[in-house]
Amino acid sequence: MPEGNEIHRWAERHFAAFGGRAVRVDGPQGRFRDSAVIDGRKLERVMAVGKHLGYDFGKDRILHVHLGLQGDFTEGSGPLPEVRGALRLRMWNAAKVKLPAGPDASKPHRWYSEDDGTENLAPEKIAWVELRGPMDCSIYTQEMWDALLERLGPDPLNGDGPEKFVARVAKSRKTIGELLMDQSVAAGVGNILRAELLYRARQSPFTPGREVAEKTLRSIWKDAGVLMKAAMVDRRIVTTRPKDRPHKKGQALKEEAHYVYRRQGRPCFVCGTKILTKVMAGRNLFWCPIDQAA
Ligand SMILES: [Zn+2]
Fold first, then answer.
1. What average pLDDT does range 82-101 have in this prediction?
2. Around 236, how many Cα atoms within 13 Å sit in the side-chain half-sphere?
3. What's the confidence (pLDDT) of residue 2?
4. What is the tens place of the pLDDT at every residue in 171-188?
5. By C-alpha distance, which of 129, 99, 115, 132 is closest to 15?
6. I need a labelling partner for 214 at 20 to 30 A (CA). Which of 22, 50, 83, 94 fits?
7. Are 50 and 270 in contact (CB under 8 A)?
8. What is the Å distance from ligand 1's center to 268 Cα?
9. CA of 269 to the centre of ligand 1 (A)
10. Mind listing the pLDDT tens digit for each residue in 31-81?
11. 99-128 burial code (b ≥16 CB/10 A, e <16)
12. What is the pTM of this model?
């Protein structure tokens, strides 16, 4: 599941590609039936909050997209590709799809943290975008969008300060590991960031929220913003510091990008202890039992 950095990155890219002009939209698969509501209208802005995208085509015409676990975008230059697979939605620029495709015409994305961004299209070259497998793709009214904002917690990428986050964690008996996955506590934080933020703070995932030091919560919030902003440049969340990597020079290798995420059974880069895993809040949690002792 993409985390907030990815969602904010799509919002910026898609606005750079399509914003301020009329956009063509359709739903080839037949599950998105409301394309006529927005097709041919001007895309005024693309909003991102937590894991939600909102393509604003004017009042009460907001295309809401939540990628969920499976959803992803494909993008390209040149003519629209033939319709293939469960294609929920296509968005394109009518003039740009008449141009010939370049050598980088279309590229399926590699999965998060495996893409170093070097082969990505420049946003201004994007002529079309395809959406497959989202959890939601539907038209929201302004009222629905506002209700969503009401439900969601603060988002580190929207300039929200730590106050709400700290307040919500500090009154909860739930563990900090559970709370970090709760979108009403911290919108946009996902499973990679949960594991890595807690490791970087040397915080046990099993401590109840109300027992975590406020200073630690503030530093987790700040760190979330730093890591997520860095990850917007490409699609890669790199959390290891160069001094902690087996290869201290150059770009982080794929297997050295994270301290604990998906490193169960392997030695901690810092203390050498085996990283552990356990399901918490429906997703696999990873932690170092020494550096993050309860
Ligand atoms: Zn360790």
1. 93
2. 18
3. 85
4. 999 999 999 999 999 999
5. 129
6. 50
7. no
8. 5
9. 7
10. 999 999 999 999 999 999 999 999 999 989 999 999 998 898 988 889 999
11. eeeeeeebeebeebbeebeeebbeeebbbb
12. 0.90
Q: Single out the residue of 181, 182, 199, 202 nearest to residue 191, CA to CA.
A: 181
pLDDT of the residue at 102: 74
**Rounded Cα distance, 197 and 145, in Å:** 29
Residues catalogued as catalytic: 2-3, 51, 283
CA 283 to ligand 1 center in whole angstroms: 21
Q: How far is residue 79's CA from residue 57's CA, in Å, rounded to a whole number?
A: 24
CA of 213 to the centre of ligand 1 (A): 20
Residue count (the chain): 294
CA–centroid distance, residue 34 to ligand 1 (Å): 51
> Between residues 107 and 148, which one has the greater pLDDT?
148
Identify the residue whose tokens are 């604003």: 56
Instruction: Give dist(CA 234, CA 1) in Å, integer.
Output: 16
- For residue 199, the CA-to-ligand 1 centroid distance in Å is 9
The Cα–Cα gap between 227 and 90 comes to: 31
